[in-house]
Amino acid sequence: MIRTRFAPSPTGFLHIGGVRTALFSWAYARKHGGTFVLRIEDTDLERSTPESVQAILDGMHWVGLDYDEGPFYQTQRFDRYKDVIQQLLASGHAYLCYCSKEELDAMRAEQEARGEKPRYDRRWRPEDGKTLPTPPAGVPPVVRFKTPLSGSVAWDDAVKGRIEFQNEELDDLIIARPDGSPTYNFCVVVDDWDMNITHVIRGDDHVNNTPRQINILKALGAPLPVYGHLPMILNEDGHKMSKRRDAVSVVDYEGKGILPEALLNYLARLGWGHGDEEFFNMDQFVEWFSLEAVSPSASRFNQEKFLWLNAQHIKAADNARLAELITPRLTAAGISTAQGPALAEVVALVKERVQELNALARECDYFYQPRQPQQAELDKHILPDTRERMARFAAQLAALPEWNTEAIHGLFKPFCAEEGIKMGQLGMPLRVLVCGTTQTPSVDAVLALIGREQVLARLAG
């Protein structure tokens, strides 16, 4: 059975690059009826925080990527890692190294002075006929993996194709620190082995880790998963996305009024495609997805296209759900929807006009509380005779036997003919006095939703 995993490190927010990795891993498992595992790689004890763990869990919940197993925490598996380290030591695939930090620094400085690539010189590595130094007293050793000295490591990457590294270019990496705590590359190997992960789908910043992990898996006699390394997401300038310049956290996008299904839809299109399809749901994505269709090249995040896609998802979304999503935004702006039209009905009228939820909330506010018109709009549309004309129109509104869009619309043409004015000379002042803005949907529908009592009160205002 196919088993994929998403394995973030809880050292900050959930990055959108991580969300795309999770999305592709999730989709691959769903496509093949497999299992999607969430694993929290929290061995960096200094940087990992409970808040970051919660941010990952909350982010996964918000975007709707459900996992079948987990979350598993590496810090709860230290005993297992120590057992495997002892196994590698006993089989001769790992060894103790007593080099101090000062020795390593001096070693690298000498190598750089000779124009060589700085690396550990394997002075503590056991070899036939080699006499090792006497272990210094009181110095806790690290454990290093005994990397093969010759040959190569190669794999057929599911995204990038054939990749090969020469073993002589690889170091004897540390797999346990002086305090006995295991290191990242080692923990990943044991976890993927124990959790029977069949496909490792992750960012291409991990390509250099892969040959090291493959060597450890081979030393353990463990099966090798299929690796697929996803290209980086760049910003519109072609640079790596950063928190200073770009919205990179899932929380940022929620605050910016993005729907989670729109974010997933857009991330799916960054480096993957199905013909010319731009707008689709996750069921369609799972049906169409394949790793072979993922581009090995980096993708650029286009904000304009992203907002257009979010607008399409807002248009397609259930009005009651949208109303629920924007209620906290209205409340934060001091707008109560307790008195007035049903918010879902207002949303249905105005949602075609916006690209994100914050704008949707702003489009709804004047249905419950008129805005203060800008002076330029007052000067342009509220002329000396406008108030009297609006009073005459208000009288006709008050006399309507039924209050609905059709009835209100039926007043417009006869009233304009009677007054000798164009529709704009009625519609614009109505918008300014009732709503506080000239930017509204069809004014008859707006007045119908606001309600007779409120409309007349605002016109009399």
Question: Nutshell version of this structure?
Answer:
The chain has 19 helices and 12 strands. It is mostly helical. The radius of gyration is 32 Å and the shape is elongated.
Output the structural class: mainly alpha
Radius of gyration: 32 Å
Q: Biggest sheet: strands side by side, in what order?
A: 1-2-3
Strand content: 5-15%
Gap between N and C termini:
70 Å
Give the mean pLDDT.
95
The proportion of residues forming helix, as a percent range, comes to: 40-55%
What does this structure look like?
This protein is mainly alpha-helical and 461 residues long. 46% of the residues lie in helices and 11% in strands. The protein contains 19 helices and twelve strands. It is elongated, with a radius of gyration of 32 Å. The termini are far apart. The model has no long low-confidence stretch (mean pLDDT 95).
Task: Spell out the key features of this protein.
three-stranded antiparallel beta sheet; 461 residues; elongated; mainly alpha; 19 helices
Topology:
Blueprint (H helix, E strand, L loop, with lengths): L2 E4 L9 H16 L3 E6 L9 H14 L5 E5 L4 H13 L3 E4 L3 H13 L28 E4 L6 E6 L3 E6 L7 E3 L7 H11 L4 E5 L6 H11 L5 E5 L2 E2 L15 H6 L4 H10 L12 H7 L10 E2 L2 H14 L2 H14 L10 H8 L6 H8 L10 H7 L4 H13 L6 H15 L3 H13 L7 H8 L1 H9 L1
Parallel strand pairs: 1-2, 2-3, 9-10, 11-12
Antiparallel strand pairs: 4-5, 5-8, 6-7
